[in-house]
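Why do we care about 3D structure at all? Because function follows from shape, and shape follows, mostly, from sequence. That is the central idea of this module. The next example makes it concrete: a single protein chain, its amino acid sequence, and then its structure expressed as tokens.
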Amino acid sequence: QVQLVESGGGLVQPGGSLGLSCTASGFSFGNVDMSWYRRAPGQEREWVASIGFAGRRTVYLDSVKGRFTGARDNSKKMVYLQMNSLEPADTAVYYCNGANYWGQGTQVTVSS
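And the structure:
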């Protein structure tokens, strides 16, 4: 049974930081590229970042480049998204994706 479980969301002030984690199980994690997506209120879900299966390749949405950093630990079957210099526009539910499966999402709210 495939499971992706995100954690680490919360409320943060503009300019602050949050770190998201996603724990995977039920598939060959080390062979799969992993991605983060987000859905802001009233908007479609959008891709945010991808981390290659070996963790050496990362690509980012232009609006988060230089602020967000994706990483993974294949030994723990976990993928991460470190978010710095957060902006109100980053407010969304963040989802972990891999092998065409989705986690349940974790809410990130950036507000003063």
